[in-house]
Design goal:
The chain is an alpha/beta fold and 436 residues long. It has helices at residues 44-48, 51-63, 75-78, 98-107, 121-129, 177-181, 199-205, 222-236, 251-260, 271-280, 290-300, 313-325, 329-335, 342-355, 361-374, 376-385, 399-409, and strands at residues 21-24, 38-42, 67-71, 110-112, 133-134, 140-141, 147-151, 173-176, 212-215, 244-248, 268-270, 286-287, 358-359, 388-391, 415-419. It has three domains: 1-188, no CATH class; 199-282 and 364-435, P-loop containing nucleotide triphosphate hydrolases (Rossmann fold), CATH 3.40.50; 287-356. Helix content is 39%, strand content 13%. A five-stranded parallel sheet has the order 9-15-14-10-11, sandwiched between helices.
């Protein structure tokens, strides 16, 4: 059935507090309300190398600065799914799909003025998916009669209050596009945490929006800050639970976080638990222990049997170095003198795991990264889980863990990371306080 025609957005150009952009046709002038806005061109050259434009758009999106975005490429080409078959070990821990981010930042908080008629697609979606109706002064009218704006900026408190609605003399409600995408009309909640916290903890927990890193020494209450932030997002601000994931480094830390938030519908996982869930979207595999890994290696490599020496430990260490530190297998073999044939055995080992539908501990992480790189539709599903990502002990994240977190966080990069820059346990696998 054909969709009804879309009426012009009555809210155009939107309150300054929302910092909305406008997407225009090539050569079109800046519309009223955008005369002083920065103009950004997206053409074939930008599409071929979007990193610099993405950086500008992200900074302006986070600061809610209006922009005129001249779209001089086909929008279908701009939003074409990205993927790569490059092995994870050959990628930087900072690898990102820049065209995916470009499309997100172009449209997340922008009116569509192509063709001359302003449209606010988040409001249109709210009318189609929820009980909201059209407003003559804001984006939508909520079922309780309040006028509301559907925000496309970073989710969090606005820098200044919204102006009152002229016809009612009251402040409009604010609903976020994240809620609308789930078919809901969640009105933005409190800006400050309801939990009692020390001043420095309060400053961290009440962080407005966008990526944040909290650096604190041992014993300063890092876990308290992380769980308080989780509570603040879910209970005070009303962020939907299915959009929030908290990550702990190990099962003990995850259990402690669950105990502190037992009254919340919180998703708290270890990195390996998250990775295994990602892998299960592709197929079910059996998780094997180190003893079984040794049995498989015994089929693949020839080792010297020396009394009182473990013949496979060097290969186990090399497997970890490739899959957690993201190092080339050939380089690892060349640097060590005790893993002859490792580079060839690495690929054979992973093929055997795939054929027998097995996962060892580190393969959970490596395979999850591989799937996120190769499968855009799977990546989109996972990125919904990590729309708001909280990460504990960030200084202990290896390059592979960092890449996993970055891919899960998606183009919005709403990551709240807590760590101690003076304490790194997993440096053998490439973890370093520099990540903070």
């Amino acid at each position: 059935m054909a969709m009804p025609p879309v009426a012009p957005a009555a809210s155009f150009p939107g309150p300054d507090a929302l910092g909305r952009n406008v997407v225009v046709d090539p050569g079109a002038p800046a519309p009223p309300g955008f005369e002083r806005a920065r103009r950004l061109l997206i053409d074939d050259d930008v599409l071929a190398d979007p990193a610099a434009t993405v950086a500008v758009l992200r900074a302006r999106w986070l600061r809610r600065r209006r922009s005129v975005i001249e779209l001089a490429v086909d929008n279908d080409a701009a939003r074409a799914p990205e993927s790569t078959d490059t092995p994870p070990y050959a990628l930087s821990r900072d690898h990102a799909f820049h065209r995916e981010a470009l499309h997100f930042l172009t449209w997340a908080n922008s009116y569509d003025l192509r063709g001359g008629t302003p449209r606010w697609w988040h409001g249109v979606l709210a009318e189609r998916r929820t009980a909201a109706s059209r407003s003559d002064t804001a984006d939508v009218l909520l079922p309780d009669g309040r006028h509301a704006f559907v925000d496309g900026g970073p989710r969090g408190p606005l820098p200044v209050p919204l102006p009152t609605v002229p016809t009612t003399g009251t402040a409009p409600a604010l609903v976020h596009r994240e809620s609308v995408s789930l078919g809901r009309l969640t009105v933005q909640g409190a800006a400050l945490p309801s939990e009692e916290l020390a001043p420095d903890q309060l400053a961290a927990v009440s962080h407005g929006f966008g990526p944040a890193r909290v650096i604190a020494p041992a014993g300063s209450g890092k876990t308290r800050v992380l769980t308080a932030r989780l509570r603040h997002l879910l209970r005070d601000r009303g962020v939907e639970p299915e959009l929030v994931t908290a990550l702990a480094y190990n099962t003990r830390a995850a259990q402690e976080m669950r105990e502190r938030t037992s009254d919340l519908p919180a998703s708290i996982r270890t990195l390996h638990s998250l990775a295994l869930r990602i892998c299960s979207l592709d197929e079910r595999r059996q998780v094997i222990d180190e003893r079984e890994v040794r049995r498989i290696l015994d089929r693949l490599v020839r080792t010297a049997r020396i009394p009182n020496q473990d013949p496979f430990q060097a290969y186990l260490d090399a497997l970890a170095e490739v899959r957690l530190a993201l190092r080339d297998p050939a380089e690892v073999e060349a640097e060590r003198g005790d893993i002859d044939g490792f580079a060839e055995a690495f690929d054979r080992y992973r093929r055997l795991l795939a054929e027998e539908r097995l996962l060892d501990f580190d393969e959970q992480i490596y395979r999850a990264i591989e799937l996120l790189l190769q499968r855009p539709e799977l990546r989109a599903t996972v990125q919904r889980w990590g729309t708001h990502l909280l990460v504990d002990e960030f200084q202990d994240l290896t390059p592979a863990f960092l890449l996993l977190v970055r891919l899960v966080a998606g183009p919005s990069l709403q990551v709240f990371a807590v760590g101690d820059d003076d304490q790194t346990i997993y440096s053998y696998a490439g973890a370093t306080p520099e990540h903070l």
